[in-house]
Structures are given as structure tokens and as C-alpha cells.
Specification:
By secondary structure, the chain is of the alpha/beta class. It folds into 2 domains: 215 residues, Rossmann fold; 117 residues, Rossmann fold (3-Layer(aba) Sandwich), CATH 3.40.50. The strands form 3 sheets. Strands 6-5-4-7-8-11-10 form a 7-stranded mixed sheet. A 5-stranded parallel sheet has the order 14-13-12-15-16, covered by helices on one side. Strands 1-2-3-9 form a 4-stranded antiparallel sheet.
């Protein structure tokens, strides 16, 4: 058994054990390349209420050369623009218009503020992605955000009015240290916006494919509040989002800030407790449902193979790669995975050696079935490639 990464208590509760799996974003250069496999198991600390991996890999082996680019999703770009508009109406930037984003990716969000002459700075540890942001005119530093780098950033740039940390908490192996770093860079008048997929939705909707080595933790509001008890930060507002199958946007500030704590905080915390996501019976049920979905996928593949029809997939994102590897041998029947990201095209899915293809080939190949792996972008994908109905092609998803 593993010990909790926060309180060091021995953990006895398991959400799911997915066995040995490759690192989702460690794409292969050719079909003959071999993947490294590591245990992928999610545990729950009964004291901290933190869902966490039993084995945490070195983040430098995962994020130094990262191939996820936010700008390839039109719906995600819309989400960023909406955030920008709402934030400008919510926060007074007249005395301080400095905005810092941690895990800023290719600058997809900060460009909305930069275009309106805000002072912006992105922090992106993956140098290949940071370089893209810099070329687009977004000041970006390729460093890991922690307590030491936070001190250095304050010394060189001052304290921002707004700190953004979207979909990054799950990616840090030392989540308590990360939160302390946010406290360091936050002034009494700063605001912090954090977004993360809600573990309620993960469990309720059996989103086991969002589990992979790059995600060290799976969060709830109750967990986050527990983690900041001894840190000079408070949660004052919570928003429910539809992104990533259901996420939370949590607003924090220093405890010394007089901003009122909104009812949304308590409402979300009560909802989590009533959902019974921390109960052992719920954990057992989740694992059973995940393996049932794997069996459903196996049966679908057998049926299609018996009909001598072709199966392709769309979306070589981490969640899709995790899903396919969990399904194992049946997934090897997939002839290819389409993806818009040019940096991924020509590479191969780790663990399965399925080639990643340019979507331009869809019309040429005419697949009988395309499995939509990023189910959170299902409507966007179907709308863009609805022409597959011209040859009676069908979209399939297993969410």
C-alpha cells in the first residue's frame, strides 16, 4: 500500500486499478518502438479526501516535451474568450493589470488579455510549447512553478492582480507545495482562478479515461479546502463548468482580503458529501462500471470485425490513449487515430503502435466507424466531420 502524498497516512481505499499502462503522452516514433509501463492505480486517503495515484512519476520525464496544444480545440478557445470577458467585468484592473498564468500552454488564453494591453506572463514548463507562445508574442518562461520559482517571479515581476491556474493542479506531484507557491505570489488584493475536472463527475459518469500518469490527483472542493487550511488562502466563490466533462472554477484570495465568501462554496461542498463519492461502496461500484465499459468496447470490436468493416478513432489526446490501453488487445484492431495536431501526426499510440493520422485522410480512407475518444469534444467533432455519412460512416463513443 502507498502513503498519502499530503499527510503520509497509509491508504487502504482504492478507486480503480488499471494495471500496467504506458505514459499517455509518450508517443512512439515508429511502430516498432517499445513503451515503458507503470502501475496506474487511484487511491483515496480517508483523512485528506484526496484521490491520488499510488505511483507518481518524475514530472520532468512527462512535461518537458509536451504535445498537448489548447489552440487545436475551437470550443476550448471559446471557453478562454468567455473567461476573459467575465473576468474583466468581475475584477478591477485599474491599479494593477498584471496577469500571470501557470501552465499557460501555447498562450491560447493570455493572448485575449495581451491583445487589450494587459501585462501578461505565462509559466509553461514544456519548452516546446512555451516556444510557440513566445513566437505568438506572449511572454512566457519555461520553468516549473514551485515555492522557489514563485519567490523569484515576485522579485522580478511583482505580484499579479490575477493568477490563473487552469487544469494544472492534477499535474503537480506536490500539490501542497504548489498551493503554498500560489500564496507566495498572491498579494492581499490578488485573485486566483483555478479550474479542475470535478471528481464527482469522474466517478458519477465513469470517466476512467481521464486517469493517466500525468494526472497525479483527482480533486473535489472538499479536498482543496482541506489542503489550504494551514495556508493563507481562502475560497470565496465556485462556478460549475461543462468543460472536461464537468469542472469547477474555484476562486481564491488571501484570508486577509475582505471579499465575501459566496453561498456557492458551501452548496458545492454539501453536494459532494451527499454524492457519497468518498464511500467505499461508491469506489467499488465505479471500478465495476469501468470494466463493464471495457467489455462493451470488446464486444463492439468483435461485431465490427465479423462484419469485415473498418474502425478508426479520432483524438490522440491523453484520455483517448488511456481508454485504448485500458481496453488492451481489442484496441489493436483500430486501424488509425486521426488528430489535428501536426506534431502528433506520423507518431504512434504508446502501448498499441497505432499510427496517428492527419484528418484530411478521412475522405480518402472512408472509415466505416470512427470512435470519438475525446468525448468532451463530441459535438464539435461530429459537426466538423459529418460528411462521413456520405458513405454511411458512423461515429461511436463509449462515454
Amino acid at each position: 500500500m502507498a502513503n498519502c502524498q499530503v499527510c503520509n497516512k497509509e491508504i487502504s481505499l482504492t478507486l480503480i486499478d488499471m494495471g500496467l499502462m504506458p505514459i499517455a503522452n509518450a508517443l512512439l516514433k515508429n511502430a516498432e518502438s517499445k513503451s515503458d509501463y507503470h502501475s496506474l492505480q487511484v487511491l483515496l486517503c480517508s483523512q485528506c479526501k484526496l484521490f491520488q495515484l499510488s505511483v507518481r512519476l518524475d514530472p520532468k520525464t512527462i512535461f518537458n516535451n509536451y504535445l498537448y496544444h489548447s489552440s487545436y480545440s475551437s470550443s476550448w478557445l471559446d471557453h478562454a474568450r468567455d473567461f476573459t470577458i467575465k473576468t474583466k467585468g468581475f475584477i478591477d484592473f485599474s491599479k494593477n493589470n498584471f496577469i500571470l498564468e501557470v501552465a499557460s500552454n501555447d498562450g491560447y488564453l493570455l493572448k485575449n488579455f495581451e491583445q487589450e494591453r494587459f501585462k501578461v506572463l505565462g509559466i509553461e514548463p514544456a519548452k516546446n510549447v512555451a516556444d510557440i507562445a513566445i513566437k505568438a508574442g506572449i511572454p512566457t518562461e519555461s520553468i516549473f512553478f514551485n515555492e522557489q520559482t514563485a519567490i523569484d517571479l515576485v522579485n522580478r515581476h511583482g505580484k499579479p492582480k490575477l493568477i490563473i491556474a487552469n487544469n494544472v493542479l492534477a499535474h503537480v506531484p506536490d500539490i501542497k507545495g504548489f498551493l503554498r507557491a500560489l500564496e507566495i505570489i498572491c498579494s492581499d488584493n490578488s485573485y486566483i482562478s483555478i479550474e479542475f475536472p470535478s471528481v464527482i463527475n469522474l466517478i458519477k459518469n465513469v470517466q476512467f479515461d481521464t486517469i493517466y500518469h500525468e494526472h497525479f490527483t483527482y480533486l473535489s472542493l472538499n479536498t482543496l479546502k482541506q489542503l489550504i487550511l494551514d495556508i493563507n488562502l481562502k475560497i470565496f466563490k465556485v462556478e460549475n463548468l461543462t468543460t472536461h466533462g464537468g469542472s469547477l472554477r474555484v476562486w481564491l484570495t488571501k484570508k486577509t482580503n475582505t471579499v465575501k465568501i459566496e453561498d456557492s462554496v458551501n452548496i458545492e461542498m454539501v453536494k459532494e458529501i451527499k454524492s457519497e463519492i468518498f464511500n467505499s461502496s461508491t469506489l467499488i461500484s465505479f471500478s465495476k462500471k469501468a470494466f463493464n465499459r471495457k467489455e462493451k468496447f470488446d464486444n463492439f470490436v468483435k461485431k465490427v470485425m465479423n462484419e469485415n468493416k473498418t474502425i478508426f478513432a479520432y483524438g490522440a489526446a491523453a484520455k483517448g490513449i488511456s481508454f485504448l490501453n485500458f481496453c488492451g488487445n481489442s484496441a489493436k484492431k483500430i486501424s488509425g487515430v486521426f488528430d489535428k495536431n501536426k506534431m502528433k501526426q506520423g507518431s504512434f499510440i504508446p502501448g498499441l503502435s497505432i499510427e496517428i493520422l492527419n484528418p484530411n485522410y478521412i475522405k480518402e480512407i472512408k472509415p466505416d466507424y470512427i470512435i470519438i475518444l475525446p468525448w468532451n469534444l463530441k459535438e464539435e467533432i461530429i459537426k466538423e466531420f459529418n460528411f462521413i455519412s456520405n458513405w454511411n460512416g458512423k461515429f461511436v463513443s463509449f462515454e
